[in-house]
Design brief:
Elements lengths: L15 E2 L4 H11 L3 E6 L2 E7 H8 L21 E2 L5 H11 L3 E6 L2 E7 H13 L13 H4 L7 H4 L33
Parallel strand pairs: 1-2, 4-5
Antiparallel strand pairs: 2-3, 5-6
Length: 189
């Protein structure tokens, strides 16, 4: 069964206007225990502001959260996908680019939001479903998610065994020895 982002997105999305002060964004986020707010202007999506964005702007000297508009703190290039986008595609893109959320929108109108918390709920549901056989996979970094895996050279060689991994004449005894790190003095305060 192919899952789509609509199956796991949060449908009741809290939003904020671009001209609202940062204090209003804080209030909404704290009141609803959320970390991402789509920013709208005239009903159209303009960007996303996160709790992290707010904290970053507020650490700047001379910034008054009551006077600064949300549009000054928001990310203008929000990761946006249309309804019906495969969950795998959304999760892969979020992991690769380290996005904290994806806004689900059609024609600039927000229909939902998919956050890392929603992704964990989706993972839990998929893994706990009957027939979900556990598979062993090597750990994959976000950078590797964007690349296709290249076949290993050793596996490509016919009859390659463990002895063929090190070329002749490169034994451990002929390599220069590593120098030991100097011992550190232990002292207390």
């Amino acid at each position: 069964m192919t899952h789509v982002v609509d199956d796991f997105m949060t449908r009741s999305v809290h939003t904020i206007g671009a001209q609202s002060p940062l204090t209003e964004a804080h209030r909404i986020m704290n009141e609803h225990a959320i970390r991402h707010l789509p920013v709208l202007e005239g009903g159209k999506l303009m960007g996303v502001v996160s709790m992290r964005d707010l904290h970053l702007i507020e650490t700047l000297k001379g910034v008054d959260p009551k006077e600064v508009a949300v549009e000054e703190a928001m990310a203008q290039e929000a990761y946006t996908v249309p309804p019906g986008t495969p969950l795998l595609e959304v999760a892969r893109t979020m992991a690769m680019h380290k996005y904290g959320s994806a806004v689900i929108a059609r024609d600039g109108k927000v229909e939902g939001i998919f956050t890392t918390i929603d992704a964990l709920k989706a993972l839990e549901e998929v893994l706990s479903s009957p027939g979900a056989a556990p598979t062993r996979r090597r750990k994959t970094t976000p950078r590797q998610l964007g690349k296709k895996s290249a076949p290993r050279k050793a596996a490509a060689r016919k009859g390659a065994g463990t002895a063929a991994k090190r070329p002749a004449g490169k034994s451990a005894a002929k390599r220069p020895a590593r120098k030991a790190a100097p011992a550190r003095k232990r002292g207390g305060r």
